[in-house]
Design a protein that fits this description.
globular; 15% strand; 39% helix; 3-stranded antiparallel β-sheet; Aspartate Aminotransferase, domain 2; 7-stranded mixed β-sheet; alpha/beta; Aspartate Aminotransferase, domain 1
Length: 359
């Protein structure tokens, strides 16, 4: 068995895509998901116990958890909210629980690995559609003979930095009576009034069956929330295995999530982030990005892996820490330089980065 595992690792190393754990180096941050710098905010130390002692259905529920979910539901204009320990747990917990035998799920080919794992754990059939392609999705929905259809997308795609055509997809789902699920992992805290996400910014939240917002990215914390109806929440409490069989977050974590998400000063940070994105793209007009013009995630694609590695090393030599993305995270022949812009980046830092890119 060990030899079989070792052979797979050797093959990956030979392809130049072996993953290893590294402590992030100190330097200018153009790689983290801390888009508006909330991870740097000190939340006052709570007097609540540090441990939760069990799952929410046993001893781990708390007034802090209940209050946090009520506040989140109100903040994101949803009927109900249910907190999971991570975005991964939320995606596999939601999808594996609600999707039944005989259901058919149409998912964007670029949805996150956690969504794909949730589909694998479910009893439903699933098929992908071309990335952000309304016509392809429409064609496949027309052919469906399933009693219940779902459409699974992200609002902001983290490996391309582009936005889903939410309004068009929501209309399409409505016309085919399909249930829309939107992962707002990278849009939560960044888009919409108070960072409430792209669904609310596009005013389609009432047409979405379930939204997933994570707190480990723009909100600088950890955990995630599934937003939907009271019926959906009750169903997940009863049938979602990653919720039922996980020890709850400690009360202090729910308190921190509540404070970070409902932070009234977030608009100032959002404005700074927007200004930095505009400044960066203006400096790099000669480069072809995959990303949306207004996205905090800016992606450059490389067919030649060596050219990408040389660029990453050049950037690092100027005190900037970033990461290249290689297959299998992205398709073969489409390695990427993933740059994340933040509210706290200075124009001087952006100038250093753009000089490296344009050399």
């Amino acid at each position: 068995m060990n030899e079989r595992l070792l052979n797979k690792l050797i093959k990956r190393k030979a392809s130049g895509t072996l993953r290893t754990l590294q402590i992030p180096e100190t330097g200018i941050d153009f790689f983290s998901n801390d888009y508006i710098g909330l991870s740097k905010i000190n939340i006052p130390t709570s007097k609540e116990p540090n441990g939760s002692t069990g799952s929410r259905l046993l001893s781990g529920n708390s007034p802090e958890a209940e209050r946090c979910e009520l506040k989140l539901a109100k903040h994101f204009k949803a009927e109900a909210a249910l907190i999971y320990n991570s975005g991964y747990a939320a995606n596999i917990g939601l999808l594996s629980a609600i999707l039944q035998r005989g259901d058919l799920v149409f998912y964007d080919q670029y949805v996150h690995a956690s969504s794909r794992d949730g589909l694998r754990l479910s009893l439903a059939e699933s098929t992908s559609f071309k990335h952000n392609d309304i016509e392809d999705l429409c064609t496949k929905l027309k052919k469906s003979k399933a009693d219940t259809n779902y459409v699974l997308i992200e609002s902001l795609y983290s490996m391309d930095g582009d936005l889903a055509p939410l309004i068009e997809i929501a209309k399409l789902c409505k016309s085919f009576n399909a249930y829309l699920i939107v992962d707002e992992a990278h849009a939560g805290g960044v888009y919409g009034q108070g960072g409430r996400g792209l669904c609310l910014a596009s005013q389609v939240e009432s047409d979405v069956f379930a939204r997933i917002v994570t707190f480990g990215k723009a909100y600088g914390s950890h955990g995630a929330v599934v937003l939907g109806s009271n019926t959906l929440k009750s169903y997940l409490v009863n049938f979602s295995r990653s919720f039922i069989y996980s020890t709850a977050l400690p009360p202090s974590s729910y308190k921190a999530i509540e404070q970070l998400v409902t932070n009234t000063n977030i608009e100032e940070s959002l404005l700074l982030l927007k200004q930095n994105i505009i400044y960066f793209r203006k400096q790099c007009q000669s480069l072809e990005f995959l990303s949306d013009l207004n996205s905090p995630i800016q992606i450059l694609e490389f067919q030649n892996q060596e050219i990408l590695e040389d660029l990453v090393n050049r950037i690092k030599s100027h005190g900037i820490y970033t990461k290249a993305i290689y297959p299998p995270t992205v398709p073969q022949g489409k390695s990427r330089l993933r740059l994340c812009l933040h509210a706290f980046n200075t124009e001087k830092e952006i100038d250093i980065l753009t000089r490296c890119l344009l050399q």
